[in-house]
Amino acid sequence: MPNSPSDAPRRVTVRRKGPLLLEGPVEVELEDGTVVSSDRFRVALCTCRRSRRYPWCDTSHRDRA
């Protein structure tokens, strides 16, 4: 059962000039209501919106950092 007391909390790592790193798997709901998912053990979410694979980070932030 999702969100039950026995579920371990998910860890989110915040980087100053980089993506949000989340322990996966994850589902992300975008502004338009679309849901995208990843079953990877760690996921990088873009926070700069420069990624060509948004919402996933493709390290485009490094070009303009």
From TrEMBL:
Highest taxon of the source? Bacteria
Keyword rRNA-binding tagged: no
Q: Per the record, a Pfam family?
A: zf-CDGSH
Keywords from UniProt, A to Z, are:
2Fe-2S, Iron, Iron-sulfur, Metal-binding
Q: Where is the Iron-binding zinc finger CDGSH type domain?
A: 23-65
Q: Which InterPro entries does the record match to this protein?
A: FeS-contain_CDGSH-typ, MitoNEET_CISD
This one is known as: CDGSH iron-sulfur domain-containing protein
